[in-house]
Design brief:
single chain, about 160 residues, alpha+beta, three-stranded antiparallel beta sheet, 2 helices, elongated
Length: about 160
């Protein structure tokens, strides 16, 4: 699998190394679970993280008494099942979408790309994730290369 950010050249080599490591080894703390359970666990963890980050950077303004940190929520996911690492077992490439709970609009969207390695018997382990920061769509997966369309990024991204 190859990771390439067309626009972000400095990150290119780092992402390639990370992807190679993720696809060739499993984390010691990973355990097999169904894809639905794996996605729900990832989504819950990421919503918690986004909310903590929002609280961390929130600045109270005395002029706006009802002002509060943004609260994020799950806003859907796209799942593509493909054999990314050519081991004969389908893997799950998942885009998980998040948005601000009370005022979901373009500036409050967040997207994570998460790759789950498929094991036998419909079990999966998380290999890794990358935050894309914007809405994105999986265009294709061929020979371990994941092409993602990221609006506003000329040329999209290849993972």
């Amino acid at each position: 699998m190859r990771i390439t950010f067309i626009k972000d050249i400095d990150i290119n080599n780092l992402m390639k190394i990370i992807a190679a490591c993720l696809l060739t080894s499993l984390s010691v703390t990973s355990y097999a679970q169904s894809i639905k359970t794996a996605i729900n666990q990832e989504m819950t963890s990421n919503v918690k993280f986004l909310n903590l980050e929002s609280e961390k950077y929130f600045i109270y303004d005395a002029e706006y008494l009802d002002s509060e940190a943004m609260k994020f929520a799950h806003n859907g996911e796209d799942i593509m099942m493909k054999d990314v690492n050519s081991d004969g077992v389908k893997d799950a490439i998942v885009l998980i979408y998040y948005c601000e709970e009370t005022s979901c609009h373009t500036t409050t969207h967040s997207t994570d790309l998460v790759i789950f390695k498929g094991l036998r018997n419909n079990q999966f382990v998380k290999l890794g994730a990358a935050s894309l920061g914007v809405n994105a769509k999986i265009e294709s997966v061929n020979n371990g290369i994941i092409n993602v369309n990221r609006p506003g990024i000329v040329g999209g991204s290849t993972f």
